[in-house]
């Protein structure tokens, strides 16, 4: 073989901006520097014991060892529907309005394959979780960037989209509470989204993995709570952040049955569902999710307060992220490099979430409060390590 060439769709993916940071991090570690890593969007807290125990017990039952069903076990889908009813007041038919996913990322990555023809547009927020943009590209769609600006509360301005683009738009991705900005959406905004989607015949995919990581009496809405949302869209959610289960790979898509049927059609041809023992553990997680999320949020809140008070930042009302403007004289990459080389602190440069993330860095509250205190001291004293 003369040479290996990647498919065009792979070449079109944006470069991996974190490679440089990863290399610097590895170098600093190798040099014995005490690194405080606030860059990881992954809970440091363990999965609750009852969930682990249910997995162990279920895994030793041979009934769980065969191929699972594509859309998820009926009992699991019922547990999801019942949690949404209890927690969000949203009534879902577990048969047609709930699909189990191998983590919500799996569904987000597959949904464009069900609806996008070459040349169709997908509305992609920026800054954002990179999967919205990359799955659009992999499916042969054209991303149309919706800037999330601080002056708009990090919500897109839907009135500013080129009508020519709107004519050829199939999908819109949204994510509130938002990663990386921690912004919330209110009912008025979701209503505007529903009207917009109806008018232009656009499928709304709302990604809601931080719905339970909330502070100071905040309640994060489900998109499906809003009148008409089910006519135009689906919501992705997951146990990853709510119950500290990122490694388990279990999530769900909910809402419009025709949209879900499209997603399921793709999935049926690519994967074979989630290990049933994991689904049974997922049912246990959903039973205790409200208590677990409450405890988690209390832990993150303490960390948030230490970081935000210490650095004079606005405390977020949801997610475990703090989206911080970089000081005068830096851009997001140079500030990230400075924090690493001078303070031994790793953050994520905003530009890694898209061009409109420039001017910010993201702190993840995924180290314990003592480590965050040390981070604050190092930053405020401009400490050289
Ligand atoms: C963590 C995260 C996900 C992925 O969740 P999984 O269910 O673990 O795949 C999806 N969207 C956003 C915005 C996230 O931050």
TrEMBL record:
Alphabetical keyword list: Aminotransferase, Transferase
InterPro entries noted in UniProt: Aminotransferase_I/II_large (IPR004839), DAP-NH2Trfase_DapL_Desulfo (IPR019881), LL-DAP_aminotransferase (IPR050881), NHTrfase_class1_PyrdxlP-BS (IPR004838), PyrdxlP-dep_Trfase (IPR015424), PyrdxlP-dep_Trfase_major (IPR015421), PyrdxlP-dep_Trfase_small (IPR015422)
Biological process annotations from GO: lysine biosynthetic process via diaminopimelate
EC number: 2.6.1.-
GO molecular function, one term: L,L-diaminopimelate aminotransferase activity
PROSITE patterns: AA_TRANSFER_CLASS_1
EC class of the enzyme, as a word: transferase
Domain Aminotransferase class I/classII large: 34-379
Listed Pfam families: Aminotran_1_2
Entry cofactors: pyridoxal 5'-phosphate
Coiled-coil stretches: none
Tree of life domain: Archaea
Protein family: Belongs to the class-I pyridoxal-phosphate-dependent aminotransferase family.
Name of this protein: Aminotransferase
Organism: Candidatus Syntropharchaeum caldarium
